[in-house]
Here is the input.
Amino acid sequence: MMDKICFIDKNDCMKTCSDEIDKWGYEAIGINIAHKEGLSGQNIKIAILDTGLPKHSSLQNIVSTSFTDDGLFDKMGHSTHITGIINTRAPLAELCVIKVLDNDGLGKFEWIIEGIQHAINWKADIINLSFGTPITPPNELKNICSIAANKKNIIICAAAGNNAKKTLCYPARYNTVLSVSAIEKNGNIPKWCNRGITDVYMPSNAYSYALNSGYCMMQGTSQSAAYASGFIALLGKITKEKVLEKMNNMKNDNKIPSFKKGELKWNFANT
Here is the structure.
């Protein structure tokens, strides 16, 4: 049996940035506009596979389960931050937090496979995977992602990775998964962000929930993936192809989305 491998570096939970940058990210992709239009993730189910169930005063009525050997609750803080991003972007979405990584951000492929199957059984519309590894997974992970995406029409958002590599992490590298990379306010891809065939770029910074009902600022492609999941939930029942079509309409001449205030024009009427 394979030993645990690292899917989340503890250093990723230590990166911080200013709330001014987060305000840019929140407004740049039009979330404030969506909320004003009454789009809040109604009737959307999001499964969050991460480091466990958050204990936070702002989170209620979240269902959860664990496939790890490390209990149910989040003691690392990563899942808490990711769940907070999604909850504040799509406040009416139904959430299921599935613990597939232990309190050190370590996990096994079998836990993730079981977690995705649980999300399928729960009838999720979106699966958020704010983690990744350069290690080639067993075919079972690729197969379950294919089943979720192609047979169940579930959008899987996965982080590209923060290792400054020329290739994406798994499972973001799968073509059935919506790979999410980070972008900064100046339109640049951060130096620490993995490169590769990326589907979606999202802001890299977010102010969100922390352990002990606190709040903190963090950055990384984990946060970008959560941004994507929360935002896609605002669009209602939508396919991966439709998401890509909309994102392509945002791209500038460099094929990078222009996340600048006032330049993002999502046509909610046509979603």
In short: Confidence is low (pLDDT under 50) at residues 252-271.
